[in-house]
Design goal:
Structural class: alpha/beta
Oligomer: single chain
Strand order of the largest sheet: 5-2-1-6-7-11-10
Strand content: 15-25%
Largest sheet: 7 strands, mixed
Order of helices and strands: EHEEEHEEHHHEHEHEEEH
Mean pLDDT: 97
Length: 216
């Protein structure tokens, strides 16, 4: 059975992992006959958002502990992620990818990736193991794969411009499809960058995961 490492960024679209994307990804991995294994950085979230009101809360939450909600406790610190033990990597989206795994939401093209997350992602890139990035998570790709890496965040021109400024090559993509950078064995899909419903998000995620497991 192929083993897919999944890096989460918390729990909730506005301050962590997009829950629909995360669960759809885990389900798709199982449906393709592979197993998923979740990881997250053991750090405080950038901030906490009340998902009912959209307002920022004064409380503090831990990314690993929050991500454990999605993984039903089956999760490890991303420091423990060893690419040699897995066949592929997957990162769902949600603002946590741009606030916790990186600071893309705050600094744009001048962003950095949390060192533990960067190390884990680059370990897959170095040994040419396939990786999939969903929604806003592809914003980290130029810092992981270097100049010329292809990816998509959908059709938003401003985000695409930042992606290109960072050295990536953005490719527009509809919600039901994915982009494959064959040279880097790298897959991306817009998911909720474009999706208006759970089924729309699933349409591209399912295709991406199917190809990811095939390449693994």
């Amino acid at each position: 059975m192929k083993r897919i490492a999944v890096i989460l960024s918390g729990c909730g679209v506005f301050d962590g992992s997009e829950i629909h994307e995360s669960v759809l990804s885990l389900l798709a991995i199982e449906q393709e006959g592979a197993s998923w294994h979740c990881f997250a950085p053991n750090i405080d979230q950038h901030h906490v958002i009340n998902h009912l009101t959209g307002e920022e809360s004064r409380e503090s939450r831990n990314v690993l502990i929050e991500a454990a909600r999605i993984a039903r406790g089956q999760i490890q610190d991303v420091q423990e992620l060893n690419a040699s033990q897995f066949d592929a990597l997957l990162l769902p989206g949600g603002f946590g990818a741009a606030k916790n795994l990186s600071d893309f939401a705050l600094k744009g093209s001048d962003c950095t990736i949390h060192p533990d997350v960067l190390s884990a992602c680059q370990s897959f890139a170095r040994v040419d193991k396939p990786a999939g990035y969903l929604c806003i998570a592809p914003a980290m790709i130029p810092l992981i794969y270097g100049s010329g890496a292809k990816g998509t965040i959908g059709t938003d021109p401003d985000t695409a411009k930042v992606f290109n400024t960072m050295g990536g090559e953005h490719i527009e993509c509809p919600v039901h499809d994915f982009v494959l950078d064959q040279k880097r064995r790298l897959l991306t899909t817009p998911a909720y960058m474009l999706a208006g419903s759970l089924s729309e998000a699933a349409s591209g995620i399912n295709k991406l995961v199917k190809e990811l497991v095939k390449l693994a």
